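Entry:
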Amino acid sequence: MDTKVSLAGVELKNPVMTASGTFGSGMEYGEFVDLNKLGAVVTKGVANVPWEGNPTPRIAEVYGGMLNAIGLQNPGIDVFAERDIPFLQQYDTRIIVNVCGRTREDYLEVVERLREEPVDLLEINISCPNVKEGGIAFGQDPKAVESITRAVKDRAKQPVIMKLSPNVTDIGEMARAAEAGGADVISLINTLTGMKIDIHKRKFVLANKTGGMSGPAIKPVAVRMVYQAAHAVKLPVIGMGGIATAEDALEFIMAGATAVSVGTANFINPYATVEIIEGIQAFMEAQGVSDIKELIGAVR
């Protein structure tokens, strides 16, 4: 039974990886999860300098998931390269570094720093607010998507994954813009923008007012967008958004995803990723599927 998949020439032993921001760099989960079993670990977002993130409170539970307004808090590329990459190198898993920035130069600085590091792929988070364009996310304007993709590809040594925002009118247009800019892979969806109000205090629950919604409630939206994106471009797609079980992961794969990322489920069940890998294998065995590639895009 073959569960191997390929992303831009990088082979993963199975299609299951972690979603950025929900797994750190794996250190926190090491006692629960054998990282050797994962197709890849996707790190928390890394910027060119340390980011403090947003003021608290910045997490709220909601029906079917959670809101977060962490603000991409991270220690910066220097600490990451010194501490996190050597930790992940101990394991037989692919290393995907998520890169964030507030300007084009921020992204390019991190991408250049990672050129000589032993990491397999770069995932570029274009849901970051573009400070030079008044705070609109890079990923909400197709011209900006194409431009930042092209700039990153010019500097990157590793294959580039562009992580798309769902907070757009036409996800297919964004996918095509990333492809036009030279992306090797696309991943989606990032969180949906949401809000929660405490009616007793008559205040926003999050200090930031809005936050990114993730968890099972967004899965049907995510599956639809992955299906649309997979049919809009010829690139491999990494699907994510509310995946908690093997059945969820298989929906994304049948919709056209070559691989899947598990995020919010890790907070509820630290064993989620391994259980999903085992569940996919059990499904393939029960269905007489010898190669997972038979399932990718099986639903037309």
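The chain has one domain: 5-294.
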